Amino acid sequence: MMVLVMGVSGSGKSSVGLALAKRQGAPFLESDSLHPTTNVAKMAAGVPLDDDDRAPWLDAIATWMAARPHGVVACSALKRAYRDRLRAAAPALRIVALLPPERVLAERLGQRRGHFMPGSLLASQLATLEVLGIDERALVLSGDKPVAATIAIVAQWLTLDPRHDAHNLSA
Ligand SMILES: Nc1ncnc2c1ncn2[C@@H]1O[C@H](COP(=O)(O)OP(=O)(O)OP(=O)(O)O)[C@@H](O)[C@H]1O
Ligand SMILES: O=C(O)[C@H](O)[C@@H](O)[C@H](O)[C@H](O)CO
């Protein structure tokens, strides 16, 4: 089973994705490690990435997904087209979207040290994020609970038949 944990910078996708991968005994991909150095330099300079910047990065993530049956990937996947690109590589992809309120995101990014992504990019991240379509059958979580609580919900959801997936904003 391939799982995408997505959201804007600070949503907790890396923390939740890594903890989920450990719990599931699945390989974990921190997709930031596949950004070309030019992308990292751009973000570090406070300039948002565009579609052209993200295309080779999404291709590399898609290659990682296509190469294995199981895995957990932390990736922003902000636009529907990006998620479509990843689904083309992993048709049964299950998506967990973390959508903490902006106040929580800003607080987390303000406290974080030693990361290339500046908090000043939060506004563009939120403006770029495209709402999950019902047909994407994602689990949509507020992501402002402790990581252990979030992954317990996700692990339970993953045991359910994906045909029953629906939006769920309750947790
Ligand atoms: N559930 C949580 N509760 C409190 N703090 C959290 C939670 N999840 C993540 N954090 C903290 O918020 C910050 C951002 O988390 P994380 O790096 O996992 O997010 P991200 O979406 O991967 O961000 P980025 O894409 O910018 O790397 C980190 O300092 C992390 O420790
Ligand atoms: O699509 C994007 O704009 C990027 O993937 C960003 O989301 C960052 O890489 C990430 O948030 C920082 O870790």
From TrEMBL:
It is an enzyme of class 2 (transferase). The keyword ATP-binding applies. This is Gluconokinase. Pathway: Carbohydrate acid metabolism. It catalyses: D-gluconate + ATP = 6-phospho-D-gluconate + ADP + H(+). Gene3D superfamilies: P-loop containing nucleotide triphosphate hydrolases (3.40.50.300). It comes from the Bacteria. GO terms for molecular function: ATP binding; gluconokinase activity. Belongs to the gluconokinase GntK/GntV family. One of its GO terms (cellular component) is cytoplasm. Its EC number is 2.7.1.12. PANTHER family: GLUCONOKINASE-RELATED. Signal peptide: none annotated. InterPro entries: P-loop_NTPase, Therm_gnt_kin. GO terms for biological process: carbohydrate metabolic process. It holds the Pfam family AAA_33. Keywords: ATP-binding, Kinase, Nucleotide-binding, Transferase. SUPFAM superfamilies: P-loop containing nucleoside triphosphate hydrolases.
